[in-house]
Amino acid sequence: MIENVLEVTRLAGEIVRTGFGKNFSIETKTNDSNIVTDIDKKSEAAIINYINKKFPSHGILAEESGADLKNSEYIWVVDPIDGTTNFAHGLPIFSVSIGLTKNGKTICGAVYDVMRDMMYSAELGSGSFVNWKKIRVTDNSNMAQSVLVTGFPYNIKDNPDNAVEKFTAFLNSCRAVRRLGSAAIDLCYLAQGIFDGFWEVSLHPWDFCAGQLIVEEAGGKVTDFNNNQLTINSSQLLASNNRIHEKMLQILQEN
Ligand code: IPD
Ligand code: CA
Ligand code: CA
Fold first, then answer.
1. 254 CA distance to ligand 3 centroid (A)?
2. Ligand 2 centroid to 81 CA: how many Å?
3. Residue of the CA atom closest to atom 8 of ligand 1
4. Which pTM does this prediction carry?
5. Ligand 1 atom nearest to CA at 207
6. How far is CA 90 from the centre of its chain?
7. How sure is the predictor about 156, in pLDDT bands with cuts at 50, 70 and 90?
8. What is the CA(183)–ligand 2 centre distance, in A?
9. Which of 82, 155, 187 gets mutated to test ligand 1 (max ligand atoms within 8 A of its CB)?
10. Which ligand is nearest to the CA of 202?
11. 3-state class (DSSP) for residue 47
């Protein structure tokens, strides 16, 4: 299956790269911060078309068109562009993220960092790779020397999760905090040992399905803010190199 996941992720990535910097339409969704372009829709349509042709009995959960689960044990979880705001404003940090779950467990996933032409991938039990090279999380256990990354939800103005307070608390306890604008890329850079930790207060399954497996297969840990395993309904996400997980949990719980 991983070959198919990689093939469709790359195919969608080509559509996204071709559309970058050209004329595209932008529509707002829930508010002015939450947007979708016609390239998101083109990318998603190509992915759905691929899956329906090759695996007509499989279910799909895709950001822009919703759920078509078909009562299948296999569900493809699709983010056609993760980092749409970056894409739409000309910042070359965005990805295509596709995870495949079997009976609720992610069995393989790919995140294509489009403009860097970096394909991150993992298969359950087989490690994580970028462009076929094995990757691993850092072994740093010192919070003060950690570089973390986060993101903010589109409903930041009325989100009850104290996203800004948590951000300030981490700024005061680690070396640096970054905000790239693509949760899937955040997770892959953690898996690759660029970042030591990542948290976000409100995500959707398509933001983290593939990236979670890539972090775990690279030796990292992914939970919610109470140290519970994530489910398809989770929105809070903490991912780390494992070694700073407890310390990050403590900060998230205290703020
Ligand atoms: C968003 C990105 C961003 C994160 C937001 C997500 P989208 O996804 O992953 O980094 O902070 O919470 O919604 O809308 O660009 O697919
Ligand atoms: Ca997303
Ligand atoms: Ca998206």
1. 30
2. 7
3. 82
4. 0.97
5. 9
6. 20
7. confident
8. 7
9. 82
10. 1
11. helix
Each residue of 199-254: pLDDT tens digit? Answer: 999 999 999 999 999 999 999 999 999 999 998 889 999 999 999 999 999 999 99
Pocket of ligand 1 (CB under 6 A): 79, 82-84, 151-153, 181-183, 200, 203, 207
Q: What single-letter DSSP state applies at residue 254? A: H
Element containing residue 212 per DSSP (H, E): helix 205-217
> Per the structure block, which two tokens stand in for 84?
């749409």
d(CA 30, CA 190): 30
Question: Which residues is 11 bridged to in the sheet?
Answer: none
Report DSSP letters for 174-209, one per residue: SSEEE--S-HHHHHHHHHTTS-SEEEESS--HHHHH
Place of tokens 């999380």: 137
55-63 — which CB contacts under 8 Å span 24+ positions? 55/4, 61/205, 61/206, 61/232, 62/206, 63/204, 63/206
Gap between the Cα atoms of 117 and 48, Å rounded: 22
DSSP annotation of 145? G
What are the tokens at 201?
Answer: 């207060």
